[in-house]
């Protein structure tokens, strides 16, 4: 009973932190806007400058929401992969989904200079990148699920995912070699990750796919917990391993696919956040860990994004670098302190 | 023999066990015909590599038989779904558990999964069964500990508690006393014996603790190179079946002691 109370306290604290950092994230930017004006704008009241309203509603708010969706989505995917593969090093990208997305984008951006033709003439919008990334990750998803149904051993899927990853990065290297500097730079910028480029239209598509995937998790709460004992025990507890595995793979692929499509491959959050959640709550129960990872992931990405968007400066640092710069030391510190690392 | 009155819970029919790859079949034992009675403590014995674990894995549907059938409660094992089987048969395996932060209570509670709703909610009824299982296995003082903090003997009792919480007619344990000292081996064996007597469950184990099993198990299945013997210790002694269990140079079976002894030169 005591531990339930502590858990409720932790969750309350995390939710408060989430709101604080979300608000902080909205209020920081290249143009400083007074706090009360930000509140007014968010609450739909009149703001003294129309441009402030536009900045907040059309630029900062979508970015904050994106950060929350991306952070929580990656953290949940990472947790699912760690449990499915019973491997603490697994993350959302082990399936090679993001490599598929990268390949799609690389073909779009780098391929245009090589193949020319209609690719070159296609407009570089967010949409084009998102579609290319989605197609790429979807193809890899199909391949992974096809492989998963041929293979009995779950661990082999992990290796197949890694192989997909190195295959695609090899293709990207070849493409880069034959590309022009301008295109390479464009691709590099995409691979740095970015939370701030989404319009409300794009964000709504993003959130629909996000919420569909998240709600599928309800079907695998039980299997996820019994998989903590290994597949044989899970099976003897009445779990249909193949079905559960496919649902888990599908959720992860959809989440990481859509996240990579809209905001680029964002490192670190997916692997590290589940471990932070496991350490804070010292539990392996997914009913606890899933919401915990989601909130912590969102908070961490909000913090990282606030750092990336250096206050009152014109520059935005690549989010991908910030997440690793900020996160890696945190995880190392946690591990040294706690010594043990759990699936 | 008044076999008509017996309630046969598990039966095999011309069962062949082993491993199958695309190229070849590696048959470990063939033509196994067993009938296991409800409410018995059955020990499967045989030397290393003879196929005890394979037999248990086949009986519990972890792996498929090469030939023949297994029937549980007059229903073919292959026609059970995972969920149906999970309310009839529970397992204690030798494989190591992945390192997680599950507490002893949570681990035992997982045994209720076949009966819980889709979010795994533990009702009063479930809690009662879990606490009963914890009490029976004498692990109440360990309830809040993480399972990876336990000694091998404690962990084994926790895994038995989990199987008990699963509330099945049959419990299958693969070498439940591997890595245990003689005290804890006795403790596990007498716990299993007690459970068979008090709950009427059928418990099937594989074991190398031949001498302890001889004192406590009701029936034996002996796997030898050429043949499979099954029956009570008395029946098997009469058939001289125990003599075939191990190579004769070192160990022999002493009929008066009903124990295996080291041969004196």
Automatic annotation (TrEMBL), chain B:
<protein>
    <submittedName>
        <fullName>ABC transporter ATP-binding protein</fullName>
    </submittedName>
</protein>
<dbReference type="GO" id="GO:0005524">
    <property type="term" value="F:ATP binding"/>
</dbReference>
<dbReference type="InterPro" id="IPR027417">
    <property type="entry name" value="P-loop_NTPase"/>
</dbReference>
<keyword id="KW-0406">Ion transport</keyword>
<dbReference type="GO" id="GO:0005886">
    <property type="term" value="C:plasma membrane"/>
</dbReference>
<keyword id="KW-0408">Iron</keyword>
<keyword id="KW-0472">Membrane</keyword>
<dbReference type="InterPro" id="IPR051535">
    <property type="entry name" value="Siderophore_ABC-ATPase"/>
</dbReference>
<keyword id="KW-0813">Transport</keyword>
<keyword id="KW-0067">ATP-binding</keyword>
<dbReference type="Pfam" id="PF00005">
    <property type="entry name" value="ABC_tran"/>
</dbReference>
<keyword id="KW-0547">Nucleotide-binding</keyword>
<dbReference type="GO" id="GO:0016887">
    <property type="term" value="F:ATP hydrolysis activity"/>
</dbReference>
<dbReference type="GO" id="GO:0006826">
    <property type="term" value="P:iron ion transport"/>
</dbReference>
<dbReference type="InterPro" id="IPR003439">
    <property type="entry name" value="ABC_transporter-like_ATP-bd"/>
</dbReference>
<feature type="domain" description="ABC transporter">
    <location>
        <begin position="10"/>
        <end position="250"/>
    </location>
</feature>
<keyword id="KW-0410">Iron transport</keyword>
<keyword id="KW-1003">Cell membrane</keyword>
<dbReference type="InterPro" id="IPR003593">
    <property type="entry name" value="AAA+_ATPase"/>
</dbReference>
């Amino acid at each position: 009973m005591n531990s339930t109370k502590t858990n409720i306290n932790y969750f309350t604290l995390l939710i408060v932190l989430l709101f604080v950092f979300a608000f902080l994230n909205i209020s920081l930017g290249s143009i400083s806007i007074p706090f009360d004006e930000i509140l007014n704008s968010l609450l739909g009241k009149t703001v003294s400058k129309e441009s402030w309203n536009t900045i907040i509603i059309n630029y900062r708010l979508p970015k904050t929401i994106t950060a929350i969706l991306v952070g929580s989505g990656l953290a949940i995917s990472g947790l699912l992969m760690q449990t499915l593969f019973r491997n603490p090093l697994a993350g959302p990208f082990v399936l090679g989904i993001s490599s598929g997305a990268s390949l799609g984008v690389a073909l779009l951006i780098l391929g245009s200079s090589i193949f020319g033709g209609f690719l070159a003439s296609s407009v570089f919008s967010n949409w084009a990148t998102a579609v290319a990334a989605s197609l790429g990750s979807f193809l890899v998803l199909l391949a992974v699920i096809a492989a998963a149904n041929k293979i009995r051993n779950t661990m082999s899927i992990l290796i197949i995912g890694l192989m997909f990853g190195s295959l695609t990065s090899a293709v990207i290297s070849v493409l880069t070699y034959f590309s022009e500097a301008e295109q390479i730079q464009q691709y590099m910028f995409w691979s740095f990750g970015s939370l701030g480029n989404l319009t409300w239209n794009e964000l709504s598509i993003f959130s629909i796919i996000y919420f569909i995937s998240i709600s599928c998790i309800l079907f695998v709460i039980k299997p996820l917990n019994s998989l903590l004992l290994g597949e044989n025990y899970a099976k003897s507890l009445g779990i249909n391993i193949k079905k559960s595995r496919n649902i888990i793979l599908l959720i992860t692929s959809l989440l990481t696919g859509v996240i990579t499509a809209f905001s680029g491959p964002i490192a670190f959050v997916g692997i590290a956040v589940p471990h932070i959640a496991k350490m804070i709550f010292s539990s392996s129960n997914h009913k606890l860990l899933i919401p915990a990872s989601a909130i912590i992931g969102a908070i961490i990405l909000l913090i990282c994004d606030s750092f990336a968007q250096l206050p009152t400066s014109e520059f935005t640092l690549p989010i991908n670098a910030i997440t690793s710069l900020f996160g890696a030391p945190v995880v190392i510190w946690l591990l040294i302190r706690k010594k043990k690392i759990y699936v | 023999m008044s076999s008509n009155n017996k309630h046969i819970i598990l039966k095999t029919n011309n069962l062949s066990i082993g491993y199958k790859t695309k190229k070849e079949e590696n048959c470990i034992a063939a033509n196994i015909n067993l009938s296991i009675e409800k409410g018995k403590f059955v020990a499967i014995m045989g030397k290393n590599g003879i196929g005890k674990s394979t037999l248990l894995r086949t009986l519990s549907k972890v792996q498929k038989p090469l030939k023949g059938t297994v029937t549980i409660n007059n229903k073919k094992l292959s026609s059970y779904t995972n969920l149906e089987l999970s309310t009839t048969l529970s397992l204690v395996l030798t494989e190591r558990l992945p390192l997680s932060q599950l507490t002893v209570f949570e681990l035992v509670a997982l045994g209720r999964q076949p009966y819980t709703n889709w979010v795994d909610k533990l009702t009063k009824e479930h809690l009662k069964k879990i606490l009963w299982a914890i009490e029976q296995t004498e692990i109440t003082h360990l309830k809040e500990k993480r399972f990876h903090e336990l000694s091998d003997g404690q962990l084994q009792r926790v895994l038995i508690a989990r199987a008990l919480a699963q509330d099945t007619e049959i419990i299958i344990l693969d070498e439940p006393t591997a890595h245990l000292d003689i005290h804890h081996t006795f403790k596990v064996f007498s716990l299993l014996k007690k459970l068979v007597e008090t709950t009427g469950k059928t418990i099937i184990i594989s074991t190398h603790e031949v001498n302890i099993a001889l004192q406590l198990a009701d029936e034996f299945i002996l796997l030898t190179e050429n043949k499979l013997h099954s029956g009570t210790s008395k029946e098997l002694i009469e058939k001289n079946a125990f003599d075939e269990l191990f190579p004769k140079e070192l160990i022999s079976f002493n009929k008066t002691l009903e124990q295996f002894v080291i041969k004196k030169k």
